[in-house]
Amino acid sequence: MVEKGKPKEEVEKLLKIGIASVYRWLKKKATGESLKPAKMSNFIRKIDPKMLAEYVKKHPG
Questions:
Q1: Is residue 5 part of a domain?
Q2: In a domain, 19, yes or no
Q3: DSSP run (H or E) holding 13
Q4: Which residue, of 10, 27, 36, 52, has the fewest CB within 10 Å?
């Protein structure tokens, strides 16, 4: 969109994203980086029940 002449601020409002994201994407595109979402590594989606029980014992209340 920006390459086709739309102002960055207009793209920001149109996509409902922050201006920093627009600049970050433009920088990635200029350097040849992929614009695909990065996979998050070491991201725990669920709490281990045993770890939760231990934490609650150590930190009551």
A1: yes
A2: yes
A3: helix 8-15
A4: 36
Give the mean model confidence (pLDDT) for residues 8-28: 91
For the entire predicted model, the pTM comes to: 0.56
CB atoms within 10 A of CB 26: 15
Average pLDDT over residues 35-53: 81
Could you give the CA distance from residue 24 to residue 15 in angstroms, rounded to a whole number? Answer: 14
Separate counts of helices (H) and strands (E) for the chain: 3, 0
Q: DSSP letter string over 34-47?
A: --SPPPPPS---S-
36: which 2 tokens? 């695909």
In a domain, 57, yes or no: no
Tally of domains within the chain: 1
